[in-house]
Amino acid sequence: MPVNNTPRINSYQSPSSSVKVIPAEEIIVANIHPSLSVHYILHLFEKYNPISVSHMMMTPMSKIRYCHVYYETFQKAFATMQEFDTYCLCGENLIVLTKKRLIEEAVQL
Question: Which Gene Ontology molecular function entries are recorded, alphabetically (predicted)?
Fold first, then answer.
């Protein structure tokens, strides 16, 4: 089955402006060293052209820092995950997974 890599764009007309909505593919980047910002994460992944990143968050119990990174295609998100999952950065091994993969791994624990 052929894969369509063309981004789907929906237009939304509000009274004040026109907004384009582009569905995005998401990865979760966790175990981020405290000295690193989301700007550094964007720089690290720039080869795969991320379109957006969330603010940095922290899990309540374990205090693991994480953020969400968004891509236009699943292929770019998956390639980032393959290259950077367990990548050692500032002495911490990054956890880079899709939401589905994160849930699958959590269930196995």
Answer: nucleic acid binding
